[in-house]
Amino acid sequence: MKIRQSLGFTLVEVMIVVAIIAILVAIAVPSYQAHIIKANRAAAAACLLEQVQFMERFYTTNLRYHQTTAGVAVVLPASAAGGPSGCGQDLAARYAFGFAAGEPTARTYIIQAVPTLLQNDTQCGTLSISNTGVKGESGTEDVRYCWK
């Protein structure tokens, strides 16, 4: 009597392994994407705080937010707005930093971080902060969730 040895895997065994891998990927990928969005949101919030510090130093020097004593309009620093160095450079593909429409004025400003299509942050949307420290968001979540 001859004993037959099995060489390789059957199609059923391969399909079971493929199904297990597909289930693991279906669970892991959305969780990973949510983590990346949350990490980028925290970095954008930190970048906005850096810009607030710049604006307060600007006000201390010029006694107004919108222009210098010589009449030159304020421009956010390149490092914060996506220039060659600083927080904005890392986030340039995911957030656009700048002033809200109609801002800044002599006594007020609102700085925004608007998510790009690459970020796709529907929970918090556009993050904003004003000269009085009021933090905002345009998404479906609470401000405390978006700014933690």
Helical fraction equals 40-55%
Number of strands: 4
Envelope shape: rod-shaped
Task: Domain count, please report it.
Answer: 1
Give the strand line-up of the largest sheet: 1-2-3-4
List the total number of helices.
Answer: 3
The average pLDDT value, as a whole number, equals: 90
- Sheet with most strands: 4 strands, antiparallel
- The ordered H/E elements are HHEEEEH
Which stretches are poorly predicted, pLDDT < 50 over at least 5 residues?
none
SS-based class: alpha+beta
N-to-C span? 73 Å
Strand content: 5-15%
Task: Using the CA coordinates, give the radius of gyration.
Answer: 25 Å
Task: Describe the 3D structure.
The protein is of the alpha+beta class and 148 residues long. The protein has one domain (11-146). It contains 3 helices and 4 strands, in the order ααββββα. A 4-stranded antiparallel β-sheet has the order 1-2-3-4, with helices on one face.
